[in-house]
Amino acid sequence: MRHPWDQRLGVWWIAEDRPEAPAIVAAPSGRTPTFGELVEAAHQVANALRAHGFGYGDVVAYALPNDVDAIVWQLATTEIGLRYISLNTALSADEFAAILQHSGAGALVTHMDYLDRFPDTASAAALRVVVGADAGLATPAGFIAEPDLLAGQPTTPPADRRQGDSIRYSSGTTGKPKGIVRPLDGRDPAEAANAMAVFGRAFSFLPFDGAHLVSTGMHHGGCQSFYLGALNVGQPLAILGRFDAEQTLATIEAHAVTTAYMVPTQFVRMLKLPPEVRDRYNVSSLKSVVHSAAPCPLQVKKDMMAWWGPVIWETYGGTEGAATVAKPNRWLEKPGTAGRTIRGMTVKILDDEGNRLPANVIGNVYIEREDGQRFEYRNDAELTASVHRGAAFTIGDMGYLDDDGYLFICDRAKDMIISGGVNIYPAEVEGVLSSHPAVGDVAVIGIPDPEWGEQVKAVVELVAGTEPSEELAQDIIAYGRARLAGFKCPRSVDFASALPRTEAGKLIKRQIRETYWAGAGRQV
Questions:
Q1: Dist CA 482 CA 358 (whole Å)
Q2: Do 50 and 168 share a structural domain?
Q3: Is the pTM of this model over 0.70?
Q4: Tally of domains within the chain
Q5: SUPFAM superfamilies, per this entry (predicted)?
Q6: Is residue 261 part of a domain?
Q7: What is the pLDDT of residue 522?
Q8: Burial category of 451 from C-beta neighbours within 10 Å (exposed 0-12, middle 13-18, buried 19 and up)
Q9: pLDDT number for residue 170
């Protein structure tokens, strides 16, 4: 038998060489297919789509829960050159309608639990499929149950297999959906899957070594990149339906999880568990846990490293493209860094006029592919142009490169607070306040101030069992003043039952800010 490093990698080749290898070891539905079974299911869906006339470049949108079906439909669409849109199941009916209309999706696939989100939004899609419904079951007008769609379709590979791709709809924190598209290259799907294996190995995802934990929303591009990186090196997936701090630890122990993708809010929630709960579970199998999507408070990451060891990797970039990687030991040498530029990419720090800034000077972070390839926002040339300077693009962050070329992110440009002409970066303040024992989550924003322009406000979600009070608000302010320069500290603290975040863990600050700026007649 070949050594694992010498084997052909990628789901399609693994299914040929080791069809009995487990592909999923845990899922909310209880389904645990092997690689052979997973690939046969994908082939059957691909053949059904072909039978309904779907061809190269056509668009399929799906809204599916964290489970096996999301992977099957993703593999099926990409092996026949389609573009898939993985919809966030938390979206409203109006948001679904906007994306379906904007994308021109020819097929809509949804779970029977989400049918209420599509009262009349599916009319533009020629094919509408319900997953989780039995064959012959009555479905809403215009929909077909998945078993009926698949009836009679072969589980063998479809003809003329060419690699497809996603359309990533990312509203981020702006509220306006953006469909990010790149040119299709028509590669063989097996070669594309092998490329994803190379991606996984770059983060020390070792072939056939343990399992990969899926604990964030599977519609999210970051989550998808890393579970595909793991699956394509032969690591089976342990899928959680939703994140629960203790269940996450239990799953790591039960399935000897070696790799995972997480977001910083998950770290915070696990660190808030009582010590006796944290100590109950063995997490020593972990080798590589990648986080991205939102800034991780410095102390939170230090505490996670102390608990789990030097296994936490960091990436910086966005749905539009990856930029940097910080390996665990390098991060410990340079705490707070988002890492150095990955191969094939360049990071530039520019001023508002587009001039390149020297080391250690904060400016706008721009990312550029060295091959000059650009993405575009679907059907939005103006937005595409607004984020590009030549081939370089920005996702709206402020930061700097140190003398060794390591990137440090300060904050989102639009979230920066300017008080009395001084720039204040809320992420730094949030990182400090989040370590207060009563703080479960925190958003720092600028609110109107007649003298200073803006003043710093902290909006706090408390840990369970803690009651808000003026005394606690003052204690949180004092906690910040003991650890930060006075001008950075909040002048006041408000309490909220829950702070709005995207599935990727980013605070939706526009929603928080609206409360305080509604009557100001200005937004900054």
A1: 32
A2: yes
A3: yes
A4: 3
A5: Acetyl-CoA synthetase-like
A6: no
A7: 47
A8: exposed
A9: 65
